[in-house]
Write a structure and sequence with these properties.
Largest sheet: 8 strands, mixed
Family: Belongs to the flavin monoamine oxidase family.
Structural class: alpha/beta
Enzyme class: oxidoreductase
Radius of gyration: 23 Å
Helix content: 25-40%
Cofactor: FAD
Number of strands: 22
CATH topology of one domain: FAD/NAD(P)-binding domain
Oligomer: single chain
Bound molecules: flavin-adenine dinucleotide
Number of helices: 14
InterPro entries: Amino_oxidase (IPR002937), FAD/NAD-bd_sf (IPR036188), Flavin_amine_oxidase (IPR001613), Flavin_monoamine_oxidase (IPR050281)
Protein name: Amine oxidase
CATH superfamily of one domain: FAD/NAD(P)-binding domain
């Protein structure tokens, strides 16, 4: 079967939904959404766990005010609780740790680092890693506690450590969503989603505003395997007999999926585009959910484990029984921990039972041997999932502005969207939302008059060429 449409949206996550809404608003109703899963929402996914529902992916509205995600939250009455990052305790192998002084020292250094980054941007100075930025701001972790504090404030947000992360774009990313310039007064805050309908609810509702029930334009359970493209249009091959021919495509697959070559492009994407795709990072952020017969941990929202040797090892714990969250019960009390980068990959390669034993070992180190054994465990595996290949993107040191422009740029009739393509809000839901909107606008310009001028860099040069370097002349 061959289906014909004007615009085919590949992927039904937040950016795909946003693109569909924008096309509709612009009068382009001849579009289709192709999605491999059995529902829309992408990385906004929740699942049954221990008589409740937990969020496998996104969990916070990050940046409030006029952030479109916050606007949808208000519109559709999503249940949330205020997030308080300072509501935290630290434990090491000897129990509770006094962390206040080091925690405040880090906070002050972090503020200095942000100021320094903004100054560098104003001066037009090159990017440096966040590790260098922290060091210049007077922070160097000397103890396991320092490392745990740094992990809590940095890696747990960006999904990667300060060594690999860009200072300038990281600070811009933070300023954009929280800094009040863009989302207005009161934007500096996070809300933790605790809605049984899931975070996805607001995005599904947003989709329902432009889609009919069982809309034939939405093909679920349809995996794209190959995208053929030329100057006449695109042909989408799927895992089934269905082929879709369109004038334009919007590819919203994660940068991890593009890097992993899960989908074949024919002809292959040009080198400048590949350079843009590979220069970006897809981080993995794995939440390990554990259920217990009773709560033995603190009432604080967060608990950090300070491992004596391994930075970030089963470190960041979250309490779903925190005041204003879920009520304490006799059967379901959820404590969950996040691992990132190498520990996330390691956990993905272990069985659930092995992960549970590791987690229990850490918990016994923190709370002693008398704590009960977890009755249930849930381990999402974002990195090995061929539909995601990670959790969200992070701007690495070495990625230039031009690389990112290339990552975003269309190739002929193939347009791209998705969180990673947002220079300002990469990693966040709002990044996905904005890029879907923007890409749809560009395609409508093509349909209605003339395509916008494409900005991309066939070659990206050093500020100083080899010719100028005497040693290589
Ligand atoms: C664990 C985790 C925690 C996060 N926490 C937060 C948070 O608290 N706050 C926040 O703002 N953001 C958070 N994020 C990031 C946020 O979820 C993403 O930025 C956003 O959902 C990305 O939307 P997208 O449309 O760009 O991509 P996606 O949601 O990945 O959409 C792409 C779609 O393409 C589909 N697809 C992939 N391959 C194929 C194929 N071959 N054929 C057909 N379909 C395919 C996928 O199934 C998916 O539905 C988190 C993400 C994760 C995973």
């Amino acid at each position: 079967e061959t289906l014909h449409t004007k615009v085919v949206i590949l992927g039904g996550g937040v950016s795909g939904i946003s693109a569909a809404r924008n096309l509709t608003a612009g009068g382009v109703n001849d579009f289709m959404i192709i999605e491999a899963r059995d529902e829309l929402g992408g990385r906004a996914q929740n699942i049954d766990f221990a008589d409740t529902k937990v969020e496998l992916g996104c969990n916070w509205v990050q940046g409030l005010g006029t952030n479109p995600v916050n606007v949808l939250r208000e519109k559709y009455g999503l249940k949330t609780a205020p997030n308080n990052g300072d509501d935290v305790v630290f434990y090491d192998e000897n129990g509770l740790v006094n962390f206040t002084e080091a925690y405040n020292t880090f906070g002050e250094a972090y503020d200095r680092m942000s100021e320094l980054a903004l100054k560098r941007l104003q001066n037009g100075q090159v990017d440096i890693s966040s590790r260098v930025g922290l060091d210049l701001a007077g922070w160097y972790p000397m103890t396991p506690l320092d490392e745990a504090i740094e992990y809590y404030n940095f890696d747990w947000e960006y999904g990667e450590n300060p060594e690999v992360s860009s200072l300038l774009y990281g600070v811009l990313n933070d300023e954009y969503s929280y800094g009040e310039k863009i989302f207005g007064e009161g934007s500096d805050g996070d809300l933790f989603v605790l809605d049984e309908r899931g975070f996805k609810h607001i995005f599904l509702e947003a989709a329902n505003e432009v889609l009919k029930k069982n809309d034939p334009r939405v093909l679920l359970n349809t995996k794209v395997t190959k995208i053929a493209h030329d100057d006449q249009g695109v042909t989408i091959h799927t895992g089934t007999d269905t082929i879709i021919k369109a004038e334009y495509a919007i590819v919203t697959f994660s940068v991890g999926v593009l890097q992993h070559r899960d989908v074949q492009f024919s002809p292959r994407l040009p080198d400048w585009k590949m350079e843009g795709i590979y220069a970006f990072n897809m981080a993995t952020y794995t939440k390990i959910f554990l259920n217990f017969p009773h709560q033995f941990w603190d009432d604080t929202q967060y608990t950090m484990y300070v491992d004596p040797d391994k930075r970030g090892y089963f470190a960041a714990w979250q309490n779903l029984n925190a005041p204003g969250f879920l009520p304490k019960k006799t059967s379901n009390n959820i404590f969950f921990v996040t691992v990132t980068q190498d520990y996330a990959y390691q956990v993905e390669s272990m069985s659930d039972e092995e992960v549970k034993q590791e987690a229990m070992k850490v918990l016994r180190t923190m709370y002693g041997d008398d704590i009960p054994e977890a009755t249930d465990i849930l381990v999402p595996r974002w990195h090995s999932n061929p539909l995601f290949r990670g959790s969200y993107s992070n701007w690495p040191i070495g990625e230039l502005d031009q690389h990112h422009t290339n990552l975003k740029a269309p190739v002929g009739r193939l347009y791209f969207a998705g969180e990673a393509l947002s220079k300002e809000a990469y990693g966040f839901l709002q990044g996905a939302w904005f890029t879907g909107e923007e890409t749809a606008t560009h395609i409508m310009q093509c349909i209605n008059s003339k395509c916008p001028k494409i900005e991309y860099y066939p070659m990206i040069y050093n500020t100083k060429t080899f010719k100028e370097r005497k040693d290589f002349a």
